[in-house]
Amino acid sequence: MPSSPWSFATVTDLTKALTTKQVSAFELAQDAIGRIERYDGEVNAVCVRDFDRALQSARTADQALARGEQQPLLGIPMTVKESFNVAGLPTTWGFVDQKDFVAEHDALAIERVKAAGGVILGKTNVPVALADWQSYNEIYGTTNNPFDLSRTPGGSSGGSSAALAAGYGALSLGSDIGGSLRVPAFHCGVYAHKPTFALCPARGHTPPGLPPLPSNRDLSVIGPMARSAADLALLLDVIAGPDPTFDGIAYRLDLPPARHTALKDYRVLLLDQHPLLPTGKAVGGALETLAANLAKAGVSVTRSSPLLPDLTETTRVYMRMLLSFLAAGFAPDLYAGAQAMAAGLDAKDDSLAAERLRGIVLSHRDWVIADSRRTGLRAQWHALFKSFDAVICPVMPTPAYVQDHHEPQEERRIDIDGQSHPYVDQLVWPGIATLPGLPSTAIPLGLADGLPVGVQIVGPWLEDRTPLKLAELIEREFGGFTPPPLFAD
Per-domain residue ranges for the chain? Predict the structure, then answer.
């Protein structure tokens, strides 16, 4: 069963094929379902299948197409992260005690996807509590990287990135608080966009059993994943905009256009090193190649600037605020243990592990102080983006690593060019955009020893279209997604 011409096609290509009757929505859904049935025993990306309803949605899309209707996603097959409520399907977040929870209503983002004509094939696998860069749990098992089945696809949207890389639909939805959109995109060679904080309402992206109320969880966002930059922008436009639950009025946010439409007009600050964690040779090499290519294309590429906020301070504040937020859901015994450990910390211990531990037991007073520091850093980013249009930097220090499910995560290690480093310290790169709430687009740059490498493009607050356009221009000029050889046929 060779792949069809549509298995790795973009939404633009699929929409054109649908409107010119080269293919039907039903055939596209069948094609994607066939690939899942053929390959997913090895990848294990789609943990909840919804094929019957997907085929019915595809039939409905074909009827709408026949009437000449137009919607952004009409007839497009896609997946969504398991953590989104989809009416009639389980939402577990990997918690075994929630394996029988079934959502009664769609998340708002799912409502918008369906209204735009999207055909949802099923839900993709996640780590427990969405709290890892590997995607495994006792309910659904382990998701593997389509480029090397022994390695992580990333997390927590790892099922979504693996599904895209394997050709299971053209789009997916994910979420991000510690790189959970960008890291899996990086590890699987696809695209993802972490929107500006609160741009996309997260109602219904809710832990099982909790009411799906409108809220913006600190630092956390939902966002699009795809195999092309233009498709990211298309799906972002579908899910973005305020939640009408607040005032009963549905309206859209009018985002500013991209600052430039030509590659040569962009002013880029390129970072390849972080003061608290080295960058591996594979990622550093990809950045150097990109820098040279951008310079040849006429882009203004700068390698350092006094305007850049202090990355060490950024990381320390981020670690504290992230763990303070996550610890709100800790079981009482786990929290009590963290309190005891934090009380025993040496005041001179400035390791990131110590910062995370202090974050778990952060008082409200200290959280307010940290939030004030975040406000100051946001102001510095605002000043920086008067001189630059984007910051390009790593997502993670190395390509995908062999899966390691040892608990607790703080005891895991990551190898960077032969040197061992704390696994959780990899938060340093995702955190530079997460802490100030800035938009960031993850893009692939090719393969290193058979594994994907890429970067993230960080843009100004609410100027999501700028990093998205730059990503599109880079893709057009230098190439983008490459199908994994194991699943390319």
Answer: 11-262+463-487, 264-416
β pairing state of 440-448 and 77-81: unpaired
pLDDT 10s digit of each residue in the chain, 489 long?
456 899 999 999 999 999 999 999 999 999 999 999 999 999 999 999 999 999 999 999 999 999 999 999 999 999 999 999 999 999 999 999 999 999 999 999 999 999 999 999 999 999 999 999 999 999 999 999 999 999 999 999 999 999 999 999 999 999 999 999 999 999 999 999 999 999 999 999 999 989 998 877 899 999 999 999 999 999 999 999 999 876 566 556 789 999 999 999 999 999 999 999 999 999 999 999 999 999 999 999 999 999 999 999 999 999 999 999 999 989 899 899 999 999 999 999 999 999 999 999 999 999 999 999 999 999 999 999 999 999 999 999 999 999 999 999 999 999 999 999 999 999 999 999 999 999 999 999 999 999 999 999 999 999 999 999 999 999 999 999 999 999 987
CB 314 within 8 A of CB 357: no
Rounded to an integer, what distance in angstroms lies between the CA atom of residue 266 and that of residue 227? 23
Active site residue ranges = 81, 156, 180
Number of C-beta neighbours around residue 50 at 10 A: 19
Residue 168 near residue 159 (C-beta atoms within 8 A): no
Q: Please give the CATH topology (third level) of the domain spanning 11-262+463-487.
A: Amidase signature (AS) enzymes (3.90.1300)
From 20, 474, 75, 456, select the one nearest 279 (Cα to Cα): 456
